[in-house]
Amino acid sequence: MTATPTAPAGTQGSTAPTAPADGARRVIIRTVGLRKSYLKKGVVTEALRGVDMEILTGEFIAIMGPSGSGKTTFFNMVGGLDSPTSGRVFIDEVDVAQLTAVELAFLRCRKIGYIFQQFNLIPYMTALENVTTPMAFAGTDPDTARNRGMELLGTVGLRERWFHRPIEMSGGQQQRVAIARSMAHLPAILLCDEPTGNLDLKTGREILDLLKRLNTERGVTIICATHDPRMLDLCDRLMWLRDGQVERVARREEVRITIGKINNETE
Question: Which DSSP state fits 256?
Fold first, then answer.
C-alpha cells in the first residue's frame, strides 16, 4: 500500500466519552514550538525541531515517518512521558510544563491511555487483573473495577477469557487486553505507539478496526505513531515527520491510497 498526499493542510468521569458532532469539536491537544534534544557523549541530537500542531476532540491522527524522524518523541511529549527541551504542550489548554509531579501523574492517569508495540502485560496476572490494576492504583472500589474491567474485556471481545494469563493468549489477544487496560479510566485521549508492529496482517487489521470503533463509538481522540500504511484508511488526518520537523499534514481525503497484494493478501 502506498499513499501520495495531493495537498498539504496545515475525560475524566464515570461515563465513557461519546463521539462529538463535527461542529462540536474543539482543540484538545496543542503543541507550540516543540523541541527536544538529547546529549550523549558530547553529541547533541535534535529529535524534535519546532513542532506546531493542533488536534481536535474525536480525531484519529496517524503520525508517520521513517525511523528516527521523531514520531515516538512527539508521542512521549504529548503523553507527558517526557519533557520538551523547549516549547509547550497544552492538554485541554492546560500547559503540561506548569503541572506538579502529582498533577501530571493525575493527568496521565485520568485523561490519557497508552498502547505500546510491546504489550507490557504483567505475566502472572489474569486478563481481568491486568485491566483493573490501574483502577486499583487510582483507588477505584473493587466491585466497580471488576464490573468495568469485564465490560472493557467484552468490548475487545475477550470477556470469556478474563481468567487467562498472557502466556495463555495469542499476541493479538494480549494486545486486546492492553487496549482494554488503556481504557481503564475511560480516557479522552488514546496514544498508540506502533500498536500493530508485533502482529500478523490479519490480527493487525482486527486491532486497527477495534481502535477505529473506540474512536467512532466512544469519541476517543486517537494518536497513532506508526509505520503501518493500513492506518491511512482509518484516520482523519495524517502527519508526516522528517528530521524532527512536520513535513506535511493532510486530511484523509487528500491522500491517494494504492492497494497492493503480497501472497494474495491485501497489505
Answer: E
Q: Is residue 31 a contact partner of residue 55, using CB atoms and an 8 Å limit?
A: no
Q: What is the pTM of this model?
A: 0.81
Contact criterion met (CB below 8 Å) for 152 and 220: no
The Cα–Cα gap between 220 and 190 comes to 7
Query: Within a 10 A sphere around the Cβ of 82, how many other Cβ atoms?
Result: 14
d(CA 24, CA 18): 12
The confidence band for 265, taking pLDDT boundaries of 50, 70 and 90, is low
d(CA 84, CA 86): 5
Q: In what order do the strands lie in the sheet with 27-40?
A: 43-56, 27-40, 86-91, 94-95
What is the domain extent for residue 154? 2-266
How many angstroms separate the CA atoms of 96 and 34, rounded?
A: 12
Which residues is 242 bridged to in the sheet?
245
CATH number at residue 127: 3.40.50.300
In this model, does residue 7 exceed pLDDT 60?
A: no
Distance between CA 158 and CA 169 in Å, rounded? 10
88 neighbors 97 (Cβ within 8 angstroms): yes
Residues 141-150 have a mean pLDDT of: 95
Query: Pairing state of beta strands 261-262 and 27-40?
Result: unpaired
Percent of the chain with pLDDT strictly greater than 70 = 87
Number of domains making up the chain: 1
Mean pLDDT, all residues of the chain: 85
Taking the CA of residue 256 as centre, how many other CA atoms within 13 Å lie in the half-sphere pointing to its CB? Answer: 4
> What is the per-residue pLDDT for 54?
95
User: Could you give phi then psi for residue 48, rounded to 5 degrees?
Assistant: -130, 140
- pLDDT 10s digits, 199-247: 888 888 888 899 999 999 989 999 998 888 887 888 999 999 999 999 9
